[in-house]
Amino acid sequence: MGKADFLSPKAIGNRIKAKGLQKLRWYCQMCQKQCRDENGFKCHCMSESHQRQLLLASENPYQFLNYFSEEFKSDFLELLRRRFGTKRVHNNIVYNEYISHREHVHMNSTQWETLTDFTKWLGREGYCKVDETPKGWYVQYIDRDPETIRRQEELERKKKQDMDDEERSAKFIEEQVRRGREGKEPEEEPVFTELKRMNEEEKVAFNLDIALAGPSKTRYNQSRSLINALKAAASAKRKESSHSGDSKDKKKKSALDEIIEMEEQKKKSVRSDNWIQANIVVKVITKKLGEKYYKKKAVIREVQGKYTAVVKMIDSGDKLKLDQSHLETVIPAPGKRVLIVNGQYKDTEAILEGINEHKFSATLTLDSGRMKGKTVEGIAYEDFSKLA
């Protein structure tokens, strides 16, 4: 029976079904393949590609389990941070939105059996605030972004500085009041007498000493002027500090290129544990796949994560999904182009000039980047590979 026409109702229905979500029990996480029904899943499990993936997984099962768990956790937290922020939300709402993406990592391939276990783990590890209610588990994302923490620290520092200024002003006023009281001569205690009128026709008169109010008002004005002067001096000091900071920044900007170069060299001097790159030639060194692929050369077509590569065999054209530990670099003939995959000059293209067999190293001439044309000696065999 021939294949259905592209515009036939059956073909259109098949494409519509393939777009949506399928049953979880017919999904193979190792091969990342979704089957339509039980018969298709059974045929996939008997296929040669599936058997190869199972052989690789049986060699180091915890590595694949940890990889899928890390992918699930990072994608889930990224969705929670981007979609809901720091709001309190039901965990099932986040999970339903997460699985709506067809290419998501399924939970049955991770270390958590249920969504409740995963939610409790998030609370224990400090990624979220979790609490259980009669309606289920709720999660609240904890934002640990360095930029957010820096803004909070700046606000607290500014608030503390304002409080320090207010306390300093209050202490200054108290000190002025204390000095004023110490410099004032002790007054005689007034003697209160009964008001008596010697003559009924005599008028009652009060003598208010205005001269006493003058010095107190003068002292008050002096204290206010001193406070204003102190505030003006503090503001001028802050302006000077800000100007000095700007001048320092300008001095730093004048040597910006040198600083950037030093930082780049510092980063590149640190060796990384993953070296696989796309479009380089590698050699398969694992015997788990049989003699057909052992010691055969392949080209890396895609890098998944840090340590997994999809390679295409040069001889047979077969595509395999291999771990970094199952591959090694390929050294071409002198004069060929290579890619440096580790060390100080990582991700730099170069030309192979010669090989030192005693030191297991090579001499390369850089062919890209700022140092183009520079000759580098002592590059180890495992730090470069032939370009495809």
From TrEMBL:
Localization per Swiss-Prot or TrEMBL: Cytoplasm; Nucleus
Compositional bias (Basic and acidic residues): 237-249
Region (Disordered): 235-254
A molecular-function term among this protein's GO annotations: double-stranded DNA binding
Keyword Cell inner membrane: no
Gene Ontology cellular-component terms listed: cytoplasm; nucleus
Function: Involved in DNA replication and the cellular response to DNA damage. May participate in DNA replication factories and create a bridge between DNA replication and repair mediated by high molecular weight complexes. May play a role in illegitimate recombination and regulation of gene expression. May participate in mRNA processing. Binds, in vitro, to double-stranded DNA. Also shown to bind preferentially to curved DNA in vitro and in vivo. Binds via its C-terminal domain to RNA in vitro.
Listed name of the protein: DNA/RNA-binding protein KIN17
DNA/RNA-binding protein Kin17 WH-like domain sequence ranges: 52-178
Assembly and binders: Associated with DNA polymerase alpha, RFC1 and cyclin A, in multiprotein DNA replication complexes. Also associates with replication origins at the G1/S phase boundary and throughout the S phase in vivo.
Coiled-coil annotated residue ranges, if any: 149-176
Keyword annotations of the record: Coiled coil, Cytoplasm, DNA damage, DNA recombination, DNA repair, DNA replication, DNA-binding, Metal-binding, Methylation, mRNA processing, Nucleus, RNA-binding, Stress response, Zinc, Zinc-finger
Native source species: Cyprinus carpio
